[in-house]
Design a protein that fits this description.
By secondary structure, the chain is mostly helical. The protein has one domain: Orthogonal Bundle (Arc Repressor Mutant, subunit A). It has six helices and two strands. The chain has a two-stranded antiparallel sheet. Helix 1 crosses helix 2, helix 1 crosses helix 6 and helix 4 crosses helix 5. The termini are far apart.
């Protein structure tokens, strides 16, 4: 199974929203600039995330997007399943006598994705970037 850019960029989009939450909506252009992604592509990803109830849009000159749920309520599975569809580890038409293995593997992948929230991803990102404090 390979997660496409839809799933990866969708997670990046929501992690960026979670990291930069300040009570006011965040324009997609700001997210695209910070993440080095195409604003047009993010526009295509935000619609299904909005329809699924993970983000809210705010119109107007100072409009943009905000999380519709808490950082600890949205899981990686929510985003991946919304943008990628059902997780399949082999072609659904394959009948090779190993269906139990494929179902177990699929279940394990889902379990991992369901156990990771936006807050967890935000924490992982911050740890990987390192946070240093300098004192003079």
């Amino acid at each position: 199974m390979k997660i496409s850019t839809k799933g990866r960029y969708g997670l990046m989009l929501l992690v960026d929203l979670a990291a930069n939450e300040c009570g006011s909506p965040i324009p997609l252009k700001s997210i695209a600039d910070r993440q080095g992604l195409s604003e047009h592509y993010l526009e295509q990803l935000i619609a299904p995330l909005r329809n699924a109830g993970f983000v809210k849009s705010v119109r107007g000159a100072y409009g943009g997007y905000v999380l519709a749920k808490g950082k600890r309520e949205i899981t990686a599975a929510d985003v991946i399943l919304t943008l990628e569809g059902p997780i399949e580890v082999v072609d659904a038409q394959v009948s090779d006598g190993l269906e139990e293995l494929w179902d177990t593997l699929r279940g394990q992948i889902l379990q991992v994705l369901e156990s990771v929230t936006l807050q967890d991803l935000l924490d992982m990102k911050q740890r990987s970037e390192g946070s240093y404090m300098y004192y003079i």
